[in-house]
Amino acid sequence: MADRFAIILAAGKGTRMKSPRPKVLHEIGGRSMLAWSVALANELGCRRSVVVVGPDMPQLSGAAAKLVGAENVVVQREQLGTANAVDAARQALSGADGEAIVLYADTPLIPAEAGERAFAELGKGASVCVLGFEARLPNRYGRLVTTGDGALEAIVEANDASEEQLQIALANSGVMAAPVKLMFELLAEVKNDNAKGEFYLTDLVALARCRGLKAGVALCEERDVQGVNSQAELAQVERVFQDGVRERMMVTGVTIPAPETVFFSHDTKIAAGVTIEPNVVFATGVSVESGAVIRAFSHLEGAKVGAGALVGPYARLRPGAVIGKDAHIGNFVEVKNVTVGEGAKANHLSYLGDGDVGAGANIGAGTIFCNYDGFFKYRTVVGEGAFVGSNSSLVAPVTIGAGGYVGSGSTVTENVPADALAIARGRQANKDGWAKAFRAEKSAAKKSGNKPEGAL
Ligand code: UD1
Ligand code: MG
Question: 52 alpha carbon to ligand 1 midpoint, in Å?
Fold first, then answer.
């Protein structure tokens, strides 16, 4: 197979986003649109991806350099059109031999199969191939003019199209594949004598045809090549992404009674046999093993949930939460950077941050791991089978030994030995008859109008 290269266009200003953030750094499924394009290039096996940015876009250049390496970030000085944008990668790819694919960084959901189909056309004799689709409303798209046998004759931009050409529903997605050397040769021939006065990448098709070379079209779905120009379109593309994942999850055996209320990230991993109740959000980095139930209104990020575990309703799992097999994390429990052992339970109203909970341990309602002193964070270790009574504060660093027992309402500041009982609270004193006498005294004072000093 020929070496593959990607040229990712990201120089657009994205003014219609009305956002201080560069357009292609907005996220779909928890991953920036730029990172989606780079991920696609990687899936296609591209050796290198060159990202074309505009001048004065330090935030974007920085993000691009992190993804593809600073040497693969190039600047298009002036926005002179898509051909000019691709041409900005000429120097960076001067030594490259193989096939290139042009991607728009504001079109994040192109499936790898579609890219493969575009490359496959090159293998079948086409010198240039574009990804096309049947547009519901083709108005602003470039039209693909084909011959009777389906070969691509030319691409006509809407502004330059005749009435007849405007009737064509087959539209250009913007994705184009061609041998690298040929692409840059043809780019040098592109002129800007068109309605917009821009250098059109799409002219490569006619230029190739002039040389007697063949051009082809690979087809894809319109929803796969939906671009983002505004916040509303960002939300639309997010919806397309979410609907796609929901569908795939259900096909692979995940039970989701209200899929439209559950939100996933690009990297969410859910095993078959998991149930996800309504209104659950999976931020990035979550995996859930078979038989687990994620109950309603839970939010998970950077967390692993083991087989058969029960999470929520209203649970929050933060990065580093590792919930063991059959463990229970109940309502209003927040877990961050804590490994919860097999079968352990924290069922109500707790904060477990930075530590370990051993297998079979029970964390009572209202338990807090006091992990932070305002400067540093410390670990709390609760041993296997330990029992922490309700409303306890475990002041880290601290260890409750295996099988240890903490009396309710304790503030534990010292380690508790295995199988010991720790009680760290005021002792209870009962005073017989005190309440009755108190009420008698106060009601008499109230009747006589004798207010105690300071009473309102
Ligand atoms: C382009 C295609 C059109 C296709 C449509 C699909 C051309 C001439 N036309 O039109 O056939 O149907 O996309 O959406 O290619 N960009 C730069 N530098 C530039 C100009 C553009 O980086 O100088 C980037 C933009 O940021 C954008 C992409 O290239 O991500 C496409 O540019 P845009 O101006 O949106 O092209 P369209 O007119 O939509
Ligand atoms: Mg566009």
Answer: 13
Whole domain around residue 89: which residue ranges?
Answer: 4-225
* Mutation to probe ligand 1, out of 17, 34, 82, 145 (largest number of atoms < 8 A from CB): 82
Same domain, 403 and 363: yes
Q: β-strands 299-300, 316-317: how paired?
A: parallel
The reply to whether 308 and 162 lie within a common domain is: no
Mean pLDDT, the chain, as a whole number? Answer: 97
- What distance in Å separates the CA atoms of residue 245 and residue 286, rounded to the nearest whole number? 14
Both 235 and 92 in one domain: the answer is no
Q: How many other CB atoms sit within 10 Å of the CB of residue 50?
A: 27
Are 65 and 187 members of one domain? yes
Residue whose Cα lies nearest atom 8 of ligand 1: it is: 200
Ligand 1 site, residue 202, Cβ cutoff 6 A:
yes
Find the helix packing angle between 33-43 and 112-123, rounded to 10°: 50
40 and 145 co-located in one domain: yes
Residue 451 lies in a domain: no
423-435: string of b/e by CB count within 10 Å (b at 16+)? ebeeeeeeeeeee
Residue 344 lies in a domain: yes
Residue whose CA is closest, atom 22 of ligand 1? 11
In the chain, how many domains are there? 2
Q: Are residues 177 and 256 in the same domain?
A: no
Residue in 348, 375, 345 with CA at minimum distance from that of residue 357: 345
Active-site residue among 26, 266, 328, 348? Answer: 348
pLDDT at 290: 98
Given pLDDT bands bounded at 50, 70 and 90, which one contains residue 149? Answer: confident
- Lowest-confidence segment of 11-15, 29-33, 271-275, 283-287 by average pLDDT: 11-15
Nearest CA owner, ligand 1 atom 11 = 142
pLDDT above 90: percentage of residues in the chain: 98
Say if residue 220 is in the same domain as residue 235: no
Q: What are phi and psi of 186, to 5 degrees?
A: -65, -35
Task: Examine residue 441 and state whether it is found in any structural domain, yes or no.
Answer: no
Distances (CA, A) of 260 to 28, 156, 237, 241, 451: 16, 39, 15, 12, 61
- The answer to whether residues 134 and 65 belong to one domain is yes
Q: Is the pLDDT of residue 88 over 90?
A: yes
Please tell me if the CB atom of residue 108 comes closer than 6 angstroms to any atom of ligand 1: no
Q: Is 328 designated active site?
A: no
**Do the domain assignments include residue 430?**
no
Is residue 355 within 8 Å of residue 380, measured between CB atoms?
yes
Phi first, then psi, for residue 76 (nearest 5°) are -95, 115
